[in-house]
Amino acid sequence: MQSQKIEEHFITEKPFYLPQKNELAVALAAYGNGLPLLLKGPTGSGKTRFMQFLAWTVKRPLITVSCHDDLSTSDLVGRYLIRGGETFWLDGPMTLAVRYGAICYLDEVVEARKDTTVVIHPLADDRRQLAIEKRGELLTAPREFMLAVSYNPGYQSVLKDMKQSTRQRFVALELNYPPPELERDIIRHEAGIEEPLAHSLVRIAAMTRGLKDSGLQEGASTRLLVHAGLLIREGIPPREACHVTITEALTDDHELVGAIDEMISSVI
Amino acid sequence: MERVATAVSLQQVIPDHQLNEWEHEELIEQLAAYDEQLERAVLAQIAVIWPVSHALCFAFLEQLHNGLRCLETKELAEWVKGILHAYEADGLRAARLYMADVENNFLCPRRGESGLTFAEAQGRLVPYIRGISGRGLQLEVSAAAATDTSTIFLPRDVRFYRDHTGNFQVYKLLATYQWAFISQDLYCQNHAQSAAIHFPGGRQQSREGDSDDILVRFFSIFPHQQLAQDIYHLLQTLRVSLFMQQEYPGLMRDLGPFFALLLENRPDLQRLAGIDYQLEKIRQWLLGQLSGEKASALGGDPQLRNIVAAAWNGRADNGDIFMATRGFYDAFCHDKPAYEPLQPLFFQGEFRPREAHRARLARRESNRQKFIEALAAILPPQAAAEAAEAEKEPKQPVANVVENGANVTPAQHHATNQAEPDPQSAEEPRFICLDDAQLELPEELRELAREIEEDLGSLPSFYISSASQRAGGQSRSPLKGPQQEEGEGLQGGLLYDEWDFRRQGFRKNWCRLHRKQLHAVKGTFVSSTLEKYRGQIMQLKRQFEMMRTQHLFIGRQRDGEDVDLDALTEAYADIRAGLVPSDRLFVRLQRDQRDIAALFLVDMSSSTEGWVGTALKESLVLLSEALDSLGDRYAIYGFSGMRRTRSEIYHIKEFTEPYSDEIRGRIAAIAPVDYTRMGPPIRHFTGVLSKVEAKVRLLIILTDGKPEDYDDYKGEYAIEDTRHALIEAKNAGIHPFCITIDREAQDYMGHMFGEINYTFINDVRKLPLRVPEIYRLLTS
Ligand SMILES: Nc1ncnc2c1ncn2[C@@H]1O[C@H](COP(=O)(O)OP(=O)(O)O)[C@@H](O)[C@H]1O
Ligand SMILES: [Mg+2]
Q1: pLDDT on residue B434
Q2: How far is the CA of A200 from the centre of ligand 1 (A)?
Q3: A97 to chain B, minimum CA–CA distance in Å?
Q4: Could you tell me the CA-to-CA distances from B326 to A236, B190, B225 in Å, in that order?
Q5: ipTM score here?
Q6: DSSP letters along B416-430, please?
Q7: What is the average pLDDT value for chain B, to the nearest integer?
Q8: Is 0.90 topped by the overall pTM?
Q9: Long-range contacts of B486-494 (CB under 8 A, 24+ apart)
Q10: What count of Cα atoms within 13 Å lies in the side-chain half-sphere of residue A176?
């Protein structure tokens, strides 16, 4: 375990972010009023990127935690460690964010166990407090601190659905797949490819996004399109690049793999 | 060979009295003409066919001469197998067709050049077409490619190439072209655009049914309607081909050689004259363009060049094609010409305006129902009450509507998040005015309203008033509820929706599911099963016990929930000793304990009678014994039923019940009942499992084949509903898995269950041991 330095979490360069709608205004208003933020949307739709952009805009560090079902409270809050025969306390990412007034972003928050997520409750309401039980310490978050969480309503099981008591504390912003022109500009910029290719990739993505009833849980995300673009720019033939970044990433089903490849080869 | 000897041999395969005299004579004559080896071979085949069908046997003898021209004697038996297969699948007519074309039906497949059938292509083609179109289009077999704008029809097979890949590309081209025809509005179904088209001489809007079918009016101005239709269809094909090149450049590039192949096989222009010549000229010019060779020129006729240019420019709309059709007709079809249509371009398919019109009306009706139903569901109660008032005084308008349509305010500009597959689509109406109040429409209703406006020009006001009446509950709904249809239907039970693939939507509350008890029987079934598999059960128990993991603390970790005292002591000792201590001083809770809930759903349809049923029950006994030693939570239910009003589930073991003699007795009581409607039980147990707290939730279905019920729950409909129910389960975070007992793997399985979600067992005797094994593999 390395002790984390808050300075490392500052975003120094302006991240590339093209807004979908009024998300920046809403997020800034929430930030100004100490309200926590919930980002809803499918994977790869720009949630993480938006948080980076927000953090850069308000000039605060961004601390991101990817949640999983083995994430313990100590992983968030901190723990004692022993080194060289001495015990010492190591702040977890959440504590770090509260102490230094950073933005703490819990990615895919429903993946975390319920007993873990309870620590965020007092932080997410107007108390804005974090209790560090092992040290008997109660931190109150400074104005600059913000809690943000993300979740994907698309494929969550019933069990992992966010509890009302949790979600009702947040200002909720939905970041869905961007509209076609915007998405085209995003991948043009991110992958450094020409407009016609970007346009084709966006069309392929749109085709994959309506196949839920055919057994495809989610369609191709903006992220996958960026990946496809990057490989094509490296000289991988376009259909092959799309096959490995889009088709195979989306499904193992033999028929669907075939169908998606056919969509690709119609368009490109 | 001598006739006498032949007669003797014949008698051994067909007893004399079964043939009349002249049949007998003829047969002897035919056989005697063959050499000895061939005669023996033919007689052997007669022996096979005769008991199956006498008519088939005569048909075979009739076609034999023909067949022997390209068959060798040793191939005869194989050919007859094919004939019988065709006969058993589709009857005498199909068998005749099979025999008629030995080359294509028998020899090609034997050489591995079988062409590609629709059945083989559709698994990939259906999601493909739904993906590119963004609509729930259906694919169906028909004599030629065509569309009615709801369904795309494709030929039964495609045999242009020797390999599947090439033939699949042709299928793909056909399907994509038909989609392009729909999206480019070949049948002029967009109200606003059609209203803008003017042409002189058309029959005035007259009869109700035709009033919005502009094509009927347009073609009625031509003396020779068939010719006008062919011209129109060809010019639309030009326009749509350009669209195809722009939208699907990859496909059109891949198919370049195919277009060249078609071009090679077109008739010789030199031999044609008149309109045939002009039309063929355009066809060949188009094929030249599409094959990428661009060599063919249109020639000097400026009229023809202008007409082609009017369709082939990337901006042409239906109005331009009307003009160009008119122009072509006037220029080249002076008097009523003698017109023998030539073969149209293969990928054009057939022009079917009447079917398209019917499909449009059907869609209109279903959209009306859906709209009223959906709007009624969201109308605020007071609006509904007012509507009820208004119904008593019919003079007063119910909703605040304008003359010829509802006062639907257009969408305010907002960036929609959904990627819209059809860039042409107009903006959807977002609000409806109802008594001065604006009601915002939810997403699906907006989409519906847009479709209705596209079709009718505006949203009819009575759609809205019907909806408010419905919501007010004053008038009997114009929609038939499922309950009203079959008055006899059992009451009670739980209602479940059913997926109708043809309309890509649910039939609401379509099925009634009833819960039933199975009464334990005493008997020897369980004890004899335990005895029969004693050795294997012991082994199973051992295997399953090994999968069991307790909460496990693992020590000497870099971090963890607690301090590892042993390690800590050691570390201090190390320090004392002047050594560098380890930093692995913690214990961590190993959290991969089994947290699994499995529900077994057993087919109790009458087809399981006999061996299959016994094997199913034995598997349940073995499984329960094994699971008992493992400690996973599990439940067992049976299902069967008849018709949508009586879907039944039989309770055998709940999650909370311990495995006991009572449960063993219930397993023994399992017996075949009725039919196999899989949708309702899957949906029911998806709901049950969703409420179970577990990390992994499994729904394991044991069945003996296709879903099928007494009513129209059969074939594709049943397969698609089952498939959809399984997808719903998956979307609810449940892992469905199907174990199917069948003689051989069936084509539909991969599609219905999803490639990785099923296994099929072709030997019933293996089932009892395979089921626990599959469970073990699934969960470890
Ligand atoms: N609005 C946007 N502006 C810029 N880039 C974007 C935008 N949306 C998506 N992206 C691109 O898509 C990628 C995936 O987005 P990301 O933020 O990681 O998705 P999420 O966190 O929602 O899973 C980003 O790395 C970026 O390249
Ligand atoms: Mg992310």
Answers
A1: 65
A2: 18
A3: 21
A4: 50, 21, 12
A5: 0.86
A6: -SS--S-TTPPPPP-
A7: 83
A8: no
A9: B486/B643, B486/B645, B488/B645, B489/B645, B489/B646, B490/B514, B490/B645, B490/B646, B494/B684
A10: 14
